TrEMBL record:
The keyword Zinc does not apply. It comes from Teredinibacter turnerae (strain ATCC 39867 / T7901). The gene is rfbD. It is an enzyme of class 1 (oxidoreductase). This is dTDP-4-dehydrorhamnose reductase. GO terms for molecular function: dTDP-4-dehydrorhamnose reductase activity. It catalyses: dTDP-beta-L-rhamnose + NADP(+) = dTDP-4-dehydro-beta-L-rhamnose + NADPH + H(+). PANTHER family: DTDP-4-DEHYDRORHAMNOSE REDUCTASE, METHIONINE ADENOSYLTRANSFERASE 2 SUBUNIT BETA.
Amino acid sequence: MKVLVCGRGQLGAELARTCPDSVELVHLGRDALDIADAGQVDRVVAELKPAAIINAAAYTAVDKAETDADAARAGNEVGPANLARAAANNGSYLLHISTDFVFDGTANTPYLPDAPVAPLGVYGQTKLAGEVAIAESGLSHWAILRTAWVFSALGNNFVKTILRLAADRPKLTIIADQIGSPTCAKHLAKTCWLAVNHQLQGIHHCTCDGVASWYDFAMAIQELGAARGLLSGTCDIAPIRTEDYPTPARRPHYSVLSNASLREQLPEAPSVYWRKALAEMLDELANR
């Protein structure tokens, strides 16, 4: 089965690394395929004729999006719409990756896929628009996986940032009133391949199990990183409130996503507690 993977970020890299032997992988970054370019998307998909497309490409600069809305819209709304149209024209299945930022974070129980959406900023608004574009495209076979707080041994992410800062500074202040589920890109990638193989349909959520604040996450990164020799010592990490660290874009205070519908449709999908996934990721870094 030929599968086109768009995007070379953390998830794209893990999709390439976990690709099943039965798949003929075509992995294209923006230099080879700009999904916001409708003509290019049409040409590439028509030429490749993939059985499936996994869209892991996106504009992810949450704060920058507030002043760079056109670029965010191109990557998060126009691009998915182009892929959906091309997939429909060529009979391809489309799996699209979305985000917890489509919610406003006012809930106090895990968000179901059909929970009301209310993005707080441009990034979430454009990601939601991309979801709508796919759902209304007329494409017969598609699925959307919303995820959150993604980390990996590959690429740049919160884990690597904390390791770097904890090694250089005597003290860090980390937000403690935003709650979510840190998610390992490798496990997300494995779920994507299962979704493609089983032709998963509709909108579902995919995160690691368990919840944490950014403060909890940072403390675990330092603890587990030090135990693996990735830090020569530890620094003082102090909890702060969101209002103590203002950013251009508002973040949801609660962005825990329910994986229930995904478990029902793909019971064999990986289920791993976020701290265990973090330990595995740090083992990989240490073994390098």
